[in-house]
Model the fold of this input.
Amino acid sequence: MSLTPGGISYDLYGPEGAPALLFINSIGVTRELWDRQRPAFEPSYRVIQYDARGHGRSSVPPGPYTIALLAQDALAILDAEKITSAHVCAISLGGLTGLWLSIHAPERVSSLVLANTGARIGSIDSWTARIALVRQSGMTAVADLAIPLWFTDAFRAREPETVQQFRAMIESCPVEGYLGCCAALRDEDLRESVASIGCPLMAVAGRHDRATAPELLDFVHERLPRSRLVTLDAAHISNVEQDAAFTAALSTFLAAHA
Done:
């Protein structure tokens, strides 16, 4: 485990000097989100998994946070490891972070995979309501709300232990960190900037995703004619629910843009 000067905790896997693959998380989870993908890429890539500001083993500074701040945390990891640019694979909140990087620091992003996300997620009202829920009822209430959105009924029946692991991640997430990232989601809207992205891009939507409906990624895909759109039979956490299909799509995409 390594730490940036700002207290962002990350792990490195794979050979030094190999092309970098940076995984960026959704809100409320830890770096273990990507454990099902790592074995496929560790032999050929310098894989980076990290905990977002306010989550897991990273520092929990007072909020509110911004997407720009979360993106600077990602850049701090690349800087610490002297990585000029990385392939970025990001989901949900991480997708907004990846979009920001592609727009504002394009030289650092070799390619971008956006999963279960959008250029605008939710609304001011919806995130204000989420913040109020956390302050009133804590992270257990968030878990009760999130788990049915994150995984389909079929997956929850098929892998109850996995679902419980994700519930535990949510319930153990520091309140201050979660609220800080809620504020970042509340305040960011990149819809007007998406068309400026120049790197190769693949969007991965979940057919049953009610947290970030597939239409949000349709919006991005339609504005980037060279982008690729993949739709998986999953809810919000598609890289876990359809891990084999997600990994195969990511592998094909990276091989085409090595």
